[in-house]
Amino acid sequence: MPTQTGFDNDRYLREQTAAILERVHRFNDKLYLEFGGKLLFDLHAARVLPGYDPNVKMRLLHQLRDQADIILCIFAGDIEKRKVRADFGISYDADALKLIDDLADWGIEITAVVITRYDDQPAARIFKNKLERRQVHVYTHRATPGYPTDIDRIVSDAGYGANPYIETTKPLVVVTGPGPGSGKLATCLAQLYHDYRRGRSAGYAKFETFPIWNLPLKHPVNVAYEAATAELRDVNVIDPHHLEVYGQTTVNYNRDVEIFPAMKRIMEKITGAASPYNSPTDMGVNRCGFGIIDDAAVQAASRQEIIRRYFRYACEYMLGLVDRETAQRVELLMRDNGLTPEDRPVVNPARVAARAAEEGGKGHDGIFCGAAVELPDGIVVDGKNSPLMHAASSLVLNAVKRLAGIPDQIHLLSPTIIDSIASLKRQVFGKDVSLDLNETLNALAISATTNPAAQVAIDKLRDLRGCEAHITHIPTPGDEAGLRDLGINLTSDPQFSSHRLFVR
Q1: Residue 252, helix vs strand vs coil
Q2: Long-range contacts of 399-404, Cβ-Cβ distance < 8 Å, separation of 24 or more
Q3: What pLDDT, on the 0 to 100 scale, is given for residue 499?
Q4: Owning domain of residue 161
Q5: Helix, strand, coil share (%) of the chain residues, nearest 5
Q6: Cα 110 from Cα 104, distance rounded (Å)
Q7: N or C: which end of the chain has fewer CB within 10 A?
Q8: How many domains does the chain have?
Q9: Axis crossing angle, helix 92-105 with helix 122-132, rounded to the nearest 10
Q10: Where are the alpha helices (DSSP H) in 286-388?
């Protein structure tokens, strides 16, 4: 059913902006703010906090643009491994380039890019060259020797001092990156070290969206974050440092809690004074919890996200991208919260469609795939694969027909166009002729030049954004890209969509 709004962006913006500026003033107008999560297109937050603008953090930065420098960190190992951001299907280095462009579109210039834990990796070196030839300031930071236990070495010219200082001019320095483990914290602390060596006082704070510190430990929003970071082995915990000092129960995650004692000693060594923070919760400036206006809606949305993560990691395990422990970890979180895969409304209809394809002998190449999508009005539409097109293709065409009120018997795609694409795939590319979603959307666009119904259907494609869908088999690259571009939230069963090992 349609999701109820549970989050107030304007309230959040007011609260978050005030909290950041207060922290800047606390540290004599020089604050290094570790900016966790995604600056743009924070789709996880949008899914668990219905109503959340996935670009609200960029709106915040745009408000503060005259007071903020932006430093972008990326871990050299992520460049080398071609680590992929799942929301867009692009590598972290490509995401970094995209973020620079996106910031420019918002009228915000990047101050510098830092390649962290740099060890002359070939891919990282190429990335550095690419940026420098586009006039982007690039710095390289080596791994900090002795981190996190050898404080004397870390806070020395052989530790943080060995990394080059990044010149900044604004009171707020936002340090961000395309993913976790990007080296944001080390960059902030290295900058603090250099500032204090130069006789300049400055401070550090952390801005993370999840877990939300003032929600209960087992609140579905926080559980959904734990599910989303299962590969990192993150665990939400009560902040013991905060509880001991203030007698207040707050939520943080294990890595921040575990590293805090060392972090506190490092900051005291750098500044030569007592730490301004008594707990990792103290370091945070997250006001996200104050933007929640309907807890029931947020809880319902977060439970659905837990199920989504279960399906995602189950598929990634089948593809060899994660280990069994990661997949099992999310399954346990789902079961512990009284959820089953079938609690996702589109799962059973997709599986029913797959069985119908098999019973009707429709399928293709011995694979019987079903798909289902929940439309904005709560109606569920399904689709099946066939020798003509993939299940995702059938699904989208059936969905836009339903949205546009086009009768089933009316064909949207010109047979001539379908035959031409099939011939090209078979005779030139040597590929299977069944149309994936990207190919189907191209065929629909061409058909619209002569078929008014196809144009009406195209006009309804934007109404699919934010809809929930499920496919009984792991989507092919063309299906996944097409569904991603349409903004459909997809899950799939961990079954292969082809008998072939190489699918393109």
Answers
A1: strand
A2: 399/373, 399/375, 399/464, 399/467, 400/457, 400/458, 400/460, 400/461, 400/463, 400/464, 401/457, 402/375, 403/375, 403/460, 403/463, 403/464, 404/453, 404/456, 404/457, 404/459, 404/460
A3: 59
A4: 1-209
A5: 50, 15, 40
A6: 8
A7: N
A8: 2
A9: 20
A10: 295-318, 324-336, 347-359
Residue 430 lies in a domain: yes
Query: Where does a domain end: 185, 209, 233?
Result: 209
- b/e per residue 4-18 (b: at least 16 CB within 10 A): eebbbbeebbebbee
The single residue listed with the structure tokens 């913006």 is 13
Domain boundary among 184, 209, 234: 209
- The pLDDT tens digits of the residues spanning 351-383 come to 999 999 999 888 888 889 999 999 999 999 999
236-250, 379-393, 413-427, range with the lowest pLDDT: 413-427
Measured CA to CA, the distance from residue 393 to residue 167 in angstroms comes to: 51
The span from the CA of 133 to the CA of 209, in Å, is: 34
d(Cα 148, Cα 269) in Å, to the nearest integer?
13
Residue 269 lies in a domain: no
DSSP assignment letter at 5: P
Give the count of alpha carbons within 13 A of 482, CB side only. 25
CB-CB contact of 457 with 404 (8 Å)? yes
CATH number at residue 168: 3.10.630.10
The enclosing domain of 487 has a CATH number of 3.40.140.40
257 near 213, Cβ under 8 Å?
no
d(CA 366, CA 499): 8
pLDDT in tens, 25-74: 999 999 999 998 788 888 999 999 999 999 999 999 999 999 999 999 99
